[in-house]
Amino acid sequence: MAKHRGRGVATINYPIGMNLGGDPSQALVHSNPSGKFTVALSSIDLGQGMKSVTRQICAETLGVPVEDVYVDTADSDTGPHCMGSFASRGTHRVGNAVMVAAREARAVMMEAAAEELEVDPADLETDGRGSIQVKGAQHRSISVRDVAIAAQFRQGKTISGRGIFLVPLSDVDPETGEMSPATCYAHACLIAEVEVDDETGEVAVLKMTSAYEIGRAINPKLVEQQLVGGSWMGMSHALYETPEPYYPDTRNGPRDFNEYLMPGPGDICPHDILVLERPAPDGPFGAKGPGEMCANPVLPAVANAVFNAVGVRVNDLPITPEKILRALKARGGAAAPARAR
Amino acid sequence: MLEFRKDIFADERDDNLKEVGQPTQRQDMLGHVTGTSPYYDDHRFANLLHLKILRSPHAHARIRSIDDSAAARAPGVKRIIRAADVPVNLNTLLSLIQFGKDDEPSLATDIVRYKGEPILGIVATSERAALEAVALVRVSYDQLPAVFDVEEALKPGAPSVNPTYPKNTFEYYNKYDHQKLRYGDADAAIAQPDIVIDERYQMSPIEHAPTETNGSITVPDTNGRYIVYTSTQALFFSLDTSAKINAIQSNQLHFIGGTVGGGFGGKVDTLTEPLCILAARLIGAPVRYRFSRHEEMQFGSPRGGERIYVKDGVMKNGRIIARKVRAYFDSGAYTRLSSYAVVKCAAHIPGPYTIPNVHGDIFCVFTNRTPATAMRGFGVTALDFALECQMDRGATAVGMDPIEYRILNAYRDGDMKAHRREAKNCALIECAQVAAEKANWPLRDEFRKMSSRQGGGAAAHAGAAADRSRAPASAAPVRAPATTPTSTPQRVAYERPAPSAPPPRPAPPAPPPRNAPPPPAAPAGSTHGAPRFSSVFGTRRR
Lengths: 341, 542
Fold this sequence. Notes:
The complex is a heterodimer of chains A (341) and B (542).
Chain A: E1 3-15, E2 25-31, E3 37-40, H1 50-62, E4 69-72, H2 90-117, E5 124-126, E6 131-134, E7 137-143, H3 144-155, E8 160-165, E9 185-197, E10 203-213, H4 220-239, E11 271-276, H5 298-310, H6 321-331
Chain B: E1 2-4, H1 29-33, E2 49-55, E3 61-67, H2 69-73, E4 77-81, E5 90-91, E6 104-105, E7 111-112, E8 118-124, H3 127-134, E9 138-143, H4 150-153, E10 179-183, H5 186-190, E11 195-203, E12 215-220, E13 226-230, H6 235-246, E14 253-256, H7 273-283, E15 287-290, H8 293-298, E16 306-314, E17 320-332, H9 338-348, E18 358-366, H10 381-398, H11 402-409, H12 428-438, H13 445-448, H14 458-461
Helix pairs in contact in B: 6-7, 10-11
């Protein structure tokens, strides 16, 4: 009786947005007379950080500090239509809509600034700190606040913009499945290291190492929270969770969190994450979406690591101690498989 | 814990940005950490009423009679809501995008098709009063045979679950009981390879387990409007579904969402809003309908179980030449969103690999269990589990390192995918390389030098597969001859090189015959063949 270590790998990709497209999102951006901007969305921030991502995209596009942008979400009277927060579509679809709206608002802002400074709008740039200046002549500048006041009370201009982003719906060929499912894909590779106890059948995940290519990390902290949280969910799917432990037999299902198995804080393992950015041609600043994909590679990587450790393959999730012990018994004990090299 | 590899793909990126890329704190952080961010259930109303649901105790049964007279007289009961009260009782979620037929009642009429199916609602002055009244309703049932296994459900003589789809499968394009994917000739190819790997995988159902259960509060507003506070993940999706079921105009509804205590796909189904709104309309008072933890665990839709058969044809040199996938999505008693995930699953086959012959048959199957729905990775998570376990088996079978086996078969820019679109913006190889490096997982030199930007598509035809060195960042993009996107792939000859040489990558849609010998490793920067860059495929964001 012993504990056996092994490691397994999985490489995956993930399509961004609703399959086949046809899932629009809209955004409205407008300034108040103090040069503070509001982004109006009906989109939902589930905690994944929709507000932060759209806020940073809006600030970058407008050329103003992020503190000067506030994102208002989840109101059907004030926010224009959005398909919803699912299918890894928030950053890509809503981010693009916000970008379009912010560009339109920026154009009016630069026009209003040009009128105040008596120059051509094409000669102006934002400094990202709340001012608009003549390119190459920084002393000729005006604050965004003064531009907003002038636009509202003197010029009669609305510093605002409308945005929509839609990937047109693709047809599907019923005979071949030919279709355009997505415009861009994120990528990942995850290596899981496990320890399997051949006496109890228990699996401990010791370490994960992963690389995620997500186009552009709009906010690295939010990317990290998604990837760490997602790997926990993947580990939970692989080893613990299900409402039907003997599926398709419907019996013995858990009814609350006392009976529904999930890994606890002590089961969480160190996770080294590397982030790669290959910008998507149609992503906002190249961004794709890490939200859904980050649970996916963990399931097979853990299953493959179990095989690498004790030489049994469990094809039915979750990989419970019971299944491992039964497989070990059928195999006649634990043994690491022959390594390729 | 998290680090960037900015050196990779640097030539495709403008890193001169001010706000994008910053670890800016959330604008709602203060509210979250001080417990003042408002959830739907934090809104307080005087005289709030509570809706509770009588649910079926049987997986499949005919309702002979319902006696709710005692419940109607119970203390605190304001109103009983029956199926006949629901203006448009039959609905399907994706009718909003014209996909599928209305197949699910808000309240069951004559037959219940899963354990937990709603039969009637009781609105009372407290949750306790509502629950006590629910317990007083007497229903007599004739139990019917039920089916729980996806493959049993497809056999002749199996109990028919859903009358809209009497054969227990969703109907695609008004003609097929499944979604097809056909690319090359997998059957012919699988008859010939060195190794065939044929396996069955089973994804378990999963509960979303949100900290905050599904729920909503409807408050009658002035001028015939209703304010709905909700935990939905998709505000207009839920609003339009609710308007349809209640047969009212969408602008009579004012949906307010906001902070959500976990969704993961389980708050798209609009499980509470339609009946909550109906109750508030019938009574003219604020009504709350929220799931208990027990309801969330037992009757809130889960991730469905998926059974997936994968059959690979693999050559001794490590190249996969054929992959067949047959998958069954357990939709439960009604469609909800599983029909959509089936198409997404077909699009995902054969995974991020270039395989010249691919065959997929994906079924959306009805069984007598709680309807399944979207969950994180919908349509893909289970398939990735099956395919990546299968990849591991393939590597073991041919005696290759599992990462090298994946890199060898990985899709690259310019490769043709099984759904007949050209791959672009690929990065699977780079992810595998840097993860292996970080984990001290040794890879052979030629595999460390491979690139998603080289050796794909037409370049593979031209014999450039051996030019695996990563192109220098300064190299000018060269336009390579494009493959015809709709060309039918043909089976090509697959040579078997000496074990020491890296195996060549055969091109999927190659015009036969092609017998390029395995070329020797070319020096870095060789113009042998056409180097490939993302700009070949059009706009590249700078």
